[in-house]
Amino acid sequence: MRLAPNRGGIPLMASTNHKEVEVSTLAVAAVLATTILLASMVSVELGISVALIELFAGFVVGNAFHVDVPSWLAFIGSFAGVVLTFLAGAEVDVPQLRREWRPSTAIGLVSFGAPFVVVGLLAYFGLGWNRQQAEIAGIALSTTSLAVVYAVLVETGLSRTVVGKRLMAATFVTDLGTVVALSILFITPTIWIVPFIAVSVLAIVVLPRIAPWFFGRYGNRVIEPEIKLVFATLFLLMWLGDRADSHAVLPAFILGLAMSSHYHEHHLERERLRVVAFAFLTPFFFLKGGMSVSASALWANLGILALLFVGKMVPKFVGIYPLARRFTGENAVFTTLLMSTGLTFGTIASLYGLNAGIIDRTQFSLLIGVVVLSAIVPTAIAQRFFQPGSDRRDRLQLRAARAVAAQETD
Length: 410
Fold this sequence. Notes:
By secondary structure, this protein is an all-alpha fold. The chain has helices at 12-46, 50-64, 71-91, 94-99, 101-126, 131-140, 146-156, 162-185, 193-218, 225-243, 249-265, 267-291, 295-300, 302-328, 332-339, 344-355, 361-385, 392-409.
């Protein structure tokens, strides 16, 4: 680095470089903020989930302007994924989940198991990847995106319908299989796993018990202490999970489940947390996902990309559709398509493989490319052609759910 003449012993270029870094950071933030605004407008005009627009926009911005994912975006995006998972758990109707655990478990297990086996065998025998690389591919492409499913269901008002609640429960089962598989096959926990599990259990047991007192004493204020309590807990879980070579997504979802009965009684608190998440956090999460995909790596390996995409989608459809037809009736295609999405855990598994030296940068880009495509393509088709509400009964149920949501917001 070339320095300006040093008068008085002060490296003048240091301050100049610092200013340049600040301007560069602000420039990236301004571009991404503008992109988020435009994505929201396009989403409203097209009637497609904003999550999909943000994913595609992130891909375009990252590759057209050669913008790498800055550290602050990676941090916000990681936190946003955990917050989304917590909110998804808070939306689950626990009594209904207990009554209907069989369909959710059946769909979720098949949703994980079928692509895990098929993609793993395809990568090992068809692409010549070694065993560990094939296992990473199978795990990364077996997932269902809880973040995408939740975002679509909330935006469309389907989170309060039977099909929406069943979808979120099945998604949880799928991602639980992903976490277990990744932990058993690869992750060797550190001693920090003990405090991580202990704090997770403590939060899940204690937070729902103290919530009525805490929210009653400090809630309904413009400074939102109740949201800060949730954020502080999630940050603590993220830190301990990172030290334990694990991840906070699973305990965050279970914590959301534990808090769901409280939020069902205090709707306004959940709405405020949802507004904060969807207005600021989640757009950066989806942008980060799109920006992680290298267009040049995908273009150079289009055949492999298509093969992996088919390897994920076909077993999902073959395995899920018969069960969805049995348990969700006329919403079977919609259910199957959303269960075929991937993002959060697929990205986590791919990043783990890259950071551990199991897969290289090209393999990582291919896996992330399939993950992002699986978040965009089936969701867009599901919303455009198979979204519930096409018959009179669905319209009445959806209208009632949206009316309840409107009353709670007021």
